[in-house]
Every structure is written in structure tokens, then in C-alpha cells.
């Protein structure tokens, strides 16, 4: 790779994005950009009533992630410094397309493209893919109160949305390398060999 890589870790809720991004940042001595989640004031209300609070929730996430990505560009990418993030800004469309409807969805799409179309895209995406049982177990284990309202049906649809999104990104961003990690079989937290294998693959891609 001729320039310092911009790496993103992605996957549905509970996949382990932040954990893996943090571990890789420590392994490669990289700065890590972590998305704001629990600070979103609309999360509790959203999971209790998605229709009423989806637009406020998604706009909060979009604006905060845009600011983080703008800062990342100025602090790292424009200075050709490597950086890893625990999300791809495209996730805003994944969630927005699922939770928003009608004119609100149209407005959100327009705002998303105005904010993000001219921003750099990741060179490498590590996509943690896992099935419903695995994700629901991890969500329950970490015990975030606002996630107690997440339904299995919503999660199953999100899994499918993520698969579709990664396929779309492969076409939309052909220069981005997408690596799929089997979150059902690979335990990068408890199994050192699993994490070492991911690290070795990333090291090769960063050359």
C-alpha cells in the first residue's frame, strides 16, 4: 500500500467492532476512532418507539460521525498517518434505510450524501459477520440497558442489511478491500491464535 491506510471495522450490533478495533490499534500502535453510542440521548426512546424517534436518533449519529470523520481526515489521513475506526460512515445509511420512512428517509439520504460524498473512504474494511444467536448472546452479556429492547426480528433484519451493504460497498468502492471475519467461529478475544491470524492478514494488506 503506497499510503498510510485508513482501516474500518464493521458489523452489526454486538459483533465486537470496538473490541477488535481497540485490540488492533494496540497491536499496530495506531490511533483508534470510536463511535459515540451511549451518549446518544435518543437511544432509550428509539428502542421503545422506533417510529417516533428514528429521525432524531439517526441525525444525531450522522452529525457526530461526520465530525469525527472530518477530524480524522485533518489529523491523520491528510498527513498520511494510519488510523483505525470502529465503524464506516456508510453504516448511517444501513440503519437509516431500515428505520426511516417516506419523506424523512428521503431527507436523510440527501443530508447523508451532502455530508459524506467527498470524504475519504476506508482502504480496508474488516467485516465481522455473525448469526442472530451469537449477536443476541453478546448483546445480553454486555448488559447495556437501552439494548434490552432490541428484538430478534430487528437484529435478523440488520444482519441481512449488513450483508447487502457489504456487497454494495464492494461495487461502490472497488478500491476498498473487504475482509469478512466469521464471528461465529473466530473468537479474537479469548483465542490468541484467532487474533494473531487477523493481525497477520491485516499486516499483509497494509504493506
From TrEMBL:
UniProt-listed Enzyme Commission number(s): 2.7.1.113
**Record-linked CDD domains:** dNK
Keyword Heme on this protein? no
Give the protein name, as stated in the record: Deoxyguanosine kinase
Residue ranges occupied by any Deoxynucleoside kinase domain in the UniProt entry: 7-206
Entry keyword set: Kinase, Transferase
The GO terms this record gives for MF are: deoxyguanosine kinase activity
Is Nucleotide-binding one of the keywords UniProt gives this record?
no
InterPro entries this protein is in? DCK/DGK, Deoxyribonucleoside_kinase, DNK_dom, P-loop_NTPase
The lineage's top-level taxon is: Bacteria
Q: Which residues cross the membrane?
A: none
Query: Pfam families, alphabetically?
Result: dNK (PF01712)
Q: What class of enzyme is it?
A: transferase
Amino acid at each position: 500500500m503506497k499510503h498510510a491506510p485508513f482501516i474500518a471495522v464493521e458489523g452489526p450490533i454486538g459483533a465486537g467492532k470496538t473490541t477488535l478495533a481497540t485490540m488492533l490499534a494496540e497491536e499496530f500502535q495506531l490511533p483508534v476512532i470510536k463511535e459515540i453510542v451511549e451518549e446518544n440521548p435518543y437511544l432509550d426512546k428509539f428502542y421503545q418507539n422506533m417510529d417516533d424517534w428514528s429521525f432524531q436518533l439517526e441525525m444525531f449519529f450522522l452529525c457526530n460521525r461526520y465530525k469525527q470523520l472530518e477530524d480524522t481526515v485533518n489529523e491523520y489521513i491528510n498527513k498520511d498517518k494510519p488510523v483505525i475506526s470502529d465503524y464506516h460512515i456508510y453504516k448511517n445509511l444501513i440503519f437509516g434505510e431500515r428505520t426511516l420512512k417516506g419523506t424523512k428517509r428521503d431527507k436523510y439520504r440527501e443530508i447523508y450524501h451532502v455530508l459524506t460524498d467527498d470524504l475519504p473512504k476506508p482502504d480496508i474494511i474488516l467485516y465481522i459477520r455473525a448469526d442472530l444467536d451469537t449477536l443476541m448472546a453478546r448483546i445480553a452479556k454486555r448488559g447495556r440497558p437501552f439494548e434490552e429492547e432490541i428484538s430478534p426480528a430487528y437484529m435478523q433484519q440488520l444482519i441481512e442489511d449488513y450483508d447487502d451493504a457489504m456487497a454494495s460497498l464492494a461495487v461502490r468502492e472497488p478500491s476498498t478491500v473487504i475482509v469478512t471475519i466469521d464471528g461465529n467461529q473466530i473468537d479474537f478475544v479469548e483465542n490468541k491464535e484467532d487474533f494473531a491470524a487477523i493481525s497477520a492478514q491485516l499486516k499483509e494488506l497494509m504493506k
